[in-house]
Write a sequence for this structure.
């Protein structure tokens, strides 16, 4: 008995797990796991496509297959002497499904139901069961990937696949059919034709040009003439894979004359498809290696005015144009001739190069416009290439155009943008606060840069008042003109802060918020703005990105990005979308213009002054690589000098600012409720108010106190109110803007090398903060509670004071007194205490004798809730005795009407 007869009765039971592909395990009849190396040869016994299993993948005891592999291998019994069965009924169902899918892939009717949208392939509901449709679409997608094709190319191969399946182009015993592309001779056209060669030969045959119109049965050589019907059918099948061929005669070998543009289209698409199905493609050897080249334009700029002292930013400049292509200098006449010829492939010296003829025409148009349009120095400072040019040039390419300023113009730039010589602008009379001296400088800088047409980045440290400087600027701008509104884009967590600060410092500004499910969309957006005529529109990064079509309809008076590091990743859709918004003046506000990489700085500058820091590839070569890899001090200084005119950065440690700052600054951080919190809040209030009407005075007091605690926990996070366990930061943070803002702020403080205290009344809130900060920032954050032994408590305080960890969470009662924590420069109150003295005692853990640094106190308040209303009441009652507001007991003395007003959620 031979080996295969010995194995004849062997059965392998397969466990099949479906994810993106298939993972398969095998067991024998005894239930023992069998390694793939034992049973895989039988599965791939007849599979030439994988070289009989040589290219298959295993992962431990699993065989990994794509959907296309699975269908191909199991559509029939792979081996005569070995049987594969499903271990469970669901495994058997997968094996049976392989045959059905194979039949469907060979069904011409399938392709009437295949839909392609972008990179997604789907089968409409008119074809088979949903499970089969999903399997089919996955299988088709994987077949394309295996051939190196994309979903967008599926329509071009559909006829071929309907006819022959996914197999290579069918071969013949007598000849090989191919396509041949030949370069121009004396005329300007390429030739593209279908050619033949013998199976063992290497020379292609095609009819001479004068006989190219003769039919197959007359023009073919004698040895192939009897195969003219087969040749005719194969040519039709081959040309179905060429999108560039839209018509061909059926009775003769295909021959056509092509332009450069048609050749380029063939190389970009058709050649890839033909080669994927095994068709020979013959093209000139130099064409395979040809590199796309671009004409580089250098413009030396000079001003007619020779004395820099009298030159202004609006001074008209003149250009001296110079051209080069692959290192070869071109005259203006050479350049004009190149454009006029309108060719994609040209010979320079002894080499062929490819150029983008459309781009050449755009360059010529720009040069003519520049010579005719009287560009100014201001235009040139930012390489003000027309927008159509920017669309033609990918972000990762070198600049096509370089502008070089002469020495006097460079000196002018340095002088005009020196922030010490800024013209004074009167502070708007309707600004409801006083600006400190450094804030006045920031205001003057904002106004000056607007008047000169430059975007800027205001990068003051947290707590120095970027918000109030911008509000003063908005009052000035909208006090001078009545036009389009200004746009402010900010993180969702600080949207409420902006509303409150604008209302507090600039009540004369009309502000609308573009946020929430009821916000106007489409044409209603512009109609709403025309009706309301606001000065300022507030929105969030997420909404600005999703409603990009609406936002891009307007040319805004100014566009401000708060926390501009939100666009730091240049490749995200949100960043790319927002950087395209158009306004008279672009402003970025951020305390951290660079968090990790210099590319973040580039992204911000791409918004405020597009093109000033070059295109990203040149920026990488000039600055990122030398600085981040080689720590080049020379390039650091060059980058500092380049960005300095457009970046205003002040820190709390600046000696010039120390005298102008208070020792302690308290700030309310307003956070909106999420829809989930708002629904729970309103439900709780309604239930409690109804119960109060039936209770006695003593019972009502107890209910009020109980409700106060529930509302405060709900304002912190719904999981505290619902008594839910911690899951993950990804799930927990979106449910509470307050929690998300505290975690983000604490993380930013730690990343800047500072330390902070976080006070909360609730153990659950402390644990939420602890776990989220650890998960997102990797900090082991201690939580000091009343149950902590004194020795451990003292050890943690000493460690914090010596800088061993940056964030310290404390229970308000346990950590509110008796501790010295002066290493902290920030104090965050997660939830409000009804007695201001208790909060102040907690703050004084950092703001006390021995504190030599500025202390920034953040008190978090949820908008429209009892937290905001109590804060307002406490402000009004400041003149009352401390005895009156030592606890929450005073609230139980309010009337039913006052309590209802206090509890009601104000949207």
């Amino acid at each position: 008995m031979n080996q295969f007869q010995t194995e004849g009765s062997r059965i392998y039971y397969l466990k099949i797990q479906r994810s993106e592909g298939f993972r398969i395990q095998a067991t024998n009849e005894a239930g023992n796991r069998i390694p793939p190396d034992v049973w895989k040869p039988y599965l791939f016994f007849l599979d030439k496509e994988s070289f009989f299993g040589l290219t298959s993948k295993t992962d431990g005891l699993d065989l990994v297959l794509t959907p296309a592999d699975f269908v191909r291998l199991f559509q029939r019994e792979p081996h005569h002497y070995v049987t594969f069965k499903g271990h469970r009924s669901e495994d058997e169902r997968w094996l049976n499904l392989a045959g059905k899918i194979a039949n469907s892939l060979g069904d011409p009717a399938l392709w009437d139901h295949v839909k392609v949208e972008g990179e997604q392939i789907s089968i409409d509901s008119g074809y088979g069961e949903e499970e089969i449709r999903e399997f089919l679409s996955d299988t088709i997608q994987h077949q394309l990937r295996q051939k190196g094709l994309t979903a967008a190319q599926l329509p071009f191969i559909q006829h071929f696949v309907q006819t022959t399946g996914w197999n290579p182009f069918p071969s013949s015993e007598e000849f090989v059919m191919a396509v041949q592309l030949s370069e121009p001779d004396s005329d300007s056209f390429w030739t593209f034709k279908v050619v033949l060669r013998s199976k063992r030969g290497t020379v292609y045959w095609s009819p001479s040009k004068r006989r190219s119109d003769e039919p197959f049965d007359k023009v073919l050589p004698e040895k192939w003439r009897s195969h003219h019907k087969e040749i005719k059918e194969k040519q039709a099948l081959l040309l179905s894979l060429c999108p560039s061929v839209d018509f061909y005669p059926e009775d003769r070998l295909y021959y056509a004359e092509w332009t450069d543009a048609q050749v380029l289209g063939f190389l970009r698409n058709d050649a890839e498809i033909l080669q994927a199905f095994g068709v020979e493609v013959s093209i000139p050897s130099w064409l395979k290696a040809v590199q796309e080249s671009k004409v580089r334009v250098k413009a030396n700029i000079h001003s007619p005015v020779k004395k820099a002292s009298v030159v202004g930013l609006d001074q008209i400049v003149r250009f001296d144009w110079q051209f080069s292509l692959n290192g070869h200098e071109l005259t203006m006449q050479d350049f004009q001739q190149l454009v006029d010829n309108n060719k994609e492939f040209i010979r320079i010296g002894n080499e062929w190069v490819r150029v983008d003829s459309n781009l050449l025409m755009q360059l010529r148009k720009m040069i003519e416009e520049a010579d005719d349009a009287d560009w100014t120095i201001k235009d040139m400072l930012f390489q003000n290439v027309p927008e159509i040019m920017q669309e033609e040039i990918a972000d990762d390419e070198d600049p096509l155009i370089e502008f070089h300023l002469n020495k006097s113009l460079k000196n002018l730039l340095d002088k005009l943008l020196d922030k010490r010589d800024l013209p004074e602008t009167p502070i708007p009379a309707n600004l409801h606060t006083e600006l400190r001296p450094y804030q006045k400088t920031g205001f003057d800088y904002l106004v000056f840069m607007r008047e000169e047409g430059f975007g800027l980045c205001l990068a003051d440290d947290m707590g120095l008042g970027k918000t109030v400087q911008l509000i003063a600027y908005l009052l000035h701008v909208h006090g001078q003109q009545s036009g389009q509104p200004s746009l402010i884009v900010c993180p969702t967590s600080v949207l409420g802060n902006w509303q409150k600060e604008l209302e507090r410092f600039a009540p004369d500004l009309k502000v609308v918020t573009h946020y929430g499910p009821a916000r106007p969309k489409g044409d209603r957006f512009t109609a709403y703005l025309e009706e309301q005529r606001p000065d300022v529109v507030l929105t969030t990064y997420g909404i600005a990105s999703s409603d990009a079509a609406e936002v891009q309809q307007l040319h805004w008076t100014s566009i401000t990005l708060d926390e501009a590091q939100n666009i730091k990743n240049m490749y995200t859709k949100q960043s790319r979308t927002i950087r395209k918004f158009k306004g008279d003046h672009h402003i970025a506000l951020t305390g951290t213009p660079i968090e990790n990489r210099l590319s973040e700085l580039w992204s911000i500058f791409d918004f405020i002054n597009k093109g000033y820091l070059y295109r990203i590839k040149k920026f990488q070569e000039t600055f990122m690589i030398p600085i981040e890899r080689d720590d080049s001090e020379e390039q650091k200084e060059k980058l500092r000098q380049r960005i300095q005119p457009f970046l205003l950065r002040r820190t709390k440690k600046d000696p010039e600012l120390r005298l102008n700052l208070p020792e302690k600054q308290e700030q309310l951080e307003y956070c909106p409720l999420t829809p989930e919190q708002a629904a729970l809040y309103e439900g709780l209030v309604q239930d409690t108010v109804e119960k109060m009407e039936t209770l006695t005075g003593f019972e009502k007091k107890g209910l009020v106190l109980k409700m106060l605690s529930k509302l405060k926990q709900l304002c912190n996070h719904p999981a505290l109110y619902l008594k839910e366990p911690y899951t993950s930061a990804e799930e927990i943070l979106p449910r509470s803007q307050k929690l998300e803002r505290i975690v983000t702020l604490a993380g930013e403080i730690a990343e800047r090398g500072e330390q902070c205290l976080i006070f909360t009344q609730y153990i659950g809130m402390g644990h939420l903060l602890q776990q989220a900060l650890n998960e997102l920032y990797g900090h082991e954050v201690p939580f000091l509670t009343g149950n902590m032994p004194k020795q451990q408590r003292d050890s943690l305080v000493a460690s914090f004071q010596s800088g061993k960890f940056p964030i310290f969470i404390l229970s308000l009662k346990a950590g509110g007194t008796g501790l010295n924590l002066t290493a902290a420069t920030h104090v965050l109150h997660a939830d409000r205490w009804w007695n201001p003295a208790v909060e102040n005692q907690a703050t004084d853990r950092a703001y006390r004798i021995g504190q030599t640094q500025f202390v920034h106190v953040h008190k978090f308040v949820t908008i429209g809730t009892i937290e905001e209303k109590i804060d307002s009441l406490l402000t009004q009652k400041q003149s009352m005795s401390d005895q009156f507001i030592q606890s929450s007991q005073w609230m139980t003395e309010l009337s039913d009407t006052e309590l209802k007003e206090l509890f009601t959620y104000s949207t």
